[in-house]
Amino acid sequence: MVSKRLSREAGHRRKFLAVIDDTPECERAVAYASRRAKSTNGVLVLLYVIEPGDFQHWLGVEKIMRDEATATANAALDGHAKVVREALGIEPEQVVLEGRPDEQIHKLIEDDQDIAILVLAAGAAKEGPGPLVASIAGKGAAFPIPVTVVPQNLSDEDIENLA
Fold first, then answer.
1. Can you tell me the distance from the alpha carbon of 158 to that of 144, in angstroms, rounded to the nearest whole number?
2. For residues 102, 17, 4 and 41, what is the CA-based torsion angle, rounded to 10 degrees?
3. Among candidates 71, 77, 114, which has minimal Cα distance to 94?
4. What is the pLDDT of residues 82-94, one digit of tens each?
5. What gap in Å lies between CA 26 and CA 19, rounded to an integer?
6. d(CA 125, CA 130)
7. Which of 46, 45, 50, 26 is nearest to 100 (CA)?
8. Reduced to 3 states, what is the DSSP secondary structure of residue 68?
9. What domains appear along the chain, each with residue ranges and CATH number?
10. 45 - beta bridge partners?
11. How many beta carbons lie within 10 A of that of residue 78, not counting itself?
12. How far apart are CA 150 and CA 124, in angstroms?
């Protein structure tokens, strides 16, 4: 169960959460979420989750690897934020968390009661829609807020017309 959403109360704005990763469809989720945020006077939140599985090394090596992963996360967020800023004139919030993506998405939704919509993009590859979209089909991974799934093959014009 999710805590009460505050986005409709005075002093709050509805937030659209897009997850940044290395999938090609990620950019489509950001494009849709940013346009929805702009058209509804909402806020765009960009989340990058660093998966900790590869940090099980000696202390010094672990710190270097974690620092490199954090730098990669921040660079990815900055790149997407720059595109949104230039295209739409809005400033997205940027969040970096470490852990399993589904757990960290749940945690962020619980921690930020203004997040009301999770926007994911489905890949068009024959391997399937992508790991996050596939995870929402599982019983234990259902998210506690509405999820919008954007097809990867939507053009900017299509997204503009839909958002």
1. 27
2. 180
3. 77
4. 999 999 999 999 9
5. 7
6. 8
7. 50
8. helix
9. 15-162 (3.40.50.620)
10. 17, 93
11. 12
12. 11
Instruction: Determine the Cα–Cα distance for residues 44 and 76; give it in Å rounded to an integer.
Output: 15
- Residue 104 phi/psi, 5° resolution? -70, -35
Torsion 31-33-39-45 (CA) sign: negative
Identity of residue 19: V
pLDDT digits (tens, 9 = 90+) for 37-91: 999 999 999 999 998 765 566 667 777 888 899 999 999 999 999 999 999 999 9
Rounded CA separation 76/130 (Å): 18
DSSP 1: -
Token pair for 101: 């993506």
Backbone phi, psi, residue 9, to 5°: -85, 160
Q: Which residues of 44-70 are buried (b: 16+ CB within 10 A; e: fewer)?
A: bbbbbbbeeeeeeeeeeeeeebbeebe
